[in-house]
Amino acid sequence: MDSLSPPQEPYRNWVELPRDVTASILWKLGAIEILTSAQLVCSTWRSICKDPSMWRSIDMHNLGDLWDMDYDLGRMCRHAVDRSSGGLVDVNIEYFGTDDLLQYIADRNPHIECNEEALAIAEHMPHLRYLQIFGNKLTNEGLQAILDGCPHLESLDLRQCFNVNMDGHLGKRCIERIKDLRHPYDPTDDYPFDAEIADVGSSEEDYPSGFSEIDFLSDDDDYYEFSGGSDMSDFEHLYFD
What we know:
Strand order of the largest sheet: 3-4-5
InterPro entries: F-box-like_dom_sf, F-box_dom, Leu-rich_rpt, LRR_dom_sf
Number of helices: 8
Low-confidence stretches: 196-224, 229-241
Number of strands: 5
Organism: Hevea brasiliensis
Shape: elongated
Protein name: F-box domain-containing protein
Order of helices and strands: HHHEHEHHEHEHE
Domain F-box: 11-58
Helix content: 25-40%
């Protein structure tokens, strides 16, 4: 009877896959699965999961009933943002995003571009004459929409809107049309609020408990709990070299 048994498939060691192949597979899991499961498997996967290139896009939307989840999604998202090391270009926090979380993301990722506000202004404020969008993430596309949709605009403050390029035709159009124009790199001395560019790194002031988000799952830590009170130490034995 043994001679009729099907041959056993050869053993496959997933850890021996090329790093880029493993990264491509893990990236498809999503932020929550990576932070709560995949990075706990072995030191190789953990190293890949901590690579900033894995966090250029963070999608945490459509998570079902948030009230039944054990995880602190806001805290988890901040940790994912920190791992991007300023390289985040796309993020989706639908259903749980807050103003504070959006500000946290914007402060730490200067490369994120967003034209939603600019497009809304262009569509709904055709009689606008004065506009200050200090430090906005709009791009040339958003600025073009504002110029097209707000023909009566006389004053425009674009200071610290660093995604806007005023060279070429768009800058010339602004200069010709706008009587009072402030460019992205103009001085901010007369700005009535704190115009200091936020530090892109985490600070202890952000975390009263004395640690920063960037410390989560550092090289010296074995685990970190994202849940409100559950202990993830049960997974500690999964780390190995």
